[in-house]
Design a protein that fits this description.
Radius of gyration: 48 Å
Shape: elongated
Number of strands: 14
Number of helices: 6
Structural class: alpha+beta
């Protein structure tokens, strides 16, 4: 019996030495501590990260098709939101080239630089080059802007479509000494006679004359209010004079 107790004490002392060498104070003598270590190995952070690591989370999925080929993707994967060209800006129109179709629009030019929309009756037309030559022959036409042009070549040089032949009349751009005309045109303030000169600020219509009036006096011979000499219509309009047809002037 004494020998048996000595064996137990010796075994216990040996186990204590093992525990001291392991440096762990919570090792179960019966081996329970080994199960904790095994659990840590199977369910620790290393095991978890293996199935859901950063490499797997950062992979980009296939991008959906953009709403338009011109759109560019944003974000980490360039899958959106999509940045597309401004919907308000039209792409290059066929009308931007000479000969392309266009639609006349007040205050805008649907054609490219150096061209304008030559549209009959101010509707559908064709892009043509702005005219460079003009004639001084009197053959008025009404522009789509309500201004009467001296002739078609003057309208073309100013990049204006023609609404109809002849002067615009009362439905055209109205002016006087205070209300100006658009785009460099002049106020044609023609009176019915010399008595109209006493009426003060006469109303007129806007006309665009050629750069140079005819060298020889042509057209109706007229006189500006208060003038002693006669002049022709082109020069009187260009000068912004209030004028009338004078029967005493040479015809």
């Amino acid at each position: 019996m004494k020998k048996a107790w000595i064996a137990v004490i010796a075994a216990t002392a040996s186990l204590g030495v093992i525990v001291a060498c392991s440096g762990s104070s919570d090792v179960d003598i019966l081996g329970a501590g080994s199960s904790s270590s095994g659990s840590s190995g199977s369910s620790g952070s290393n095991g978890s990260s293996g199935s859901s690591g950063e490499d797997g989370a950062g992979a980009c999925p296939p991008c959906p098709a953009p709403p338009d080929p011109a759109c560019k993707g944003t974000g980490a994967c360039n899958c959106g939101p999509w940045v597309c060209p401004d919907a308000g800006s039209d792409p290059v129109d066929a009308g931007s080239d000479a000969g392309g179709a266009c639609t006349w629009s007040a205050g805008s030019n649907p054609c490219g630089p150096g061209m304008y929309c030559a549209a009959k009756n101010c509707k559908q037309g064709t892009c043509v080059a702005v005219g460079t030559n003009e004639s001084s022959n009197r053959n008025p036409v009404c522009g789509c802007d309500g201004v009467t042009y001296w002739n078609e070549s003057v309208a073309a040089k100013n990049g204006m479509s023609i609404a109809k032949g002849g002067a615009c009349g009362n439905d055209g751009a109205i002016c006087n000494g205070i209300v100006p005309c658009p785009n460099g045109s002049k106020c044609n303030r023609r009176l019915q006679g010399a008595d109209g000169c006493l009426g003060g600020n006469a109303q007129g219509s806007c006309w665009m004359t050629p750069s140079t009036c005819p060298g020889v006096l042509v057209g109706t011979k007229s006189r500006a209010c208060g003038a002693l000499t006669c002049n022709d219509e082109c020069n009187l309009i260009k000068a912004g004079s209030t004028w009338y047809v004078d029967g005493l002037c040479p015809q």
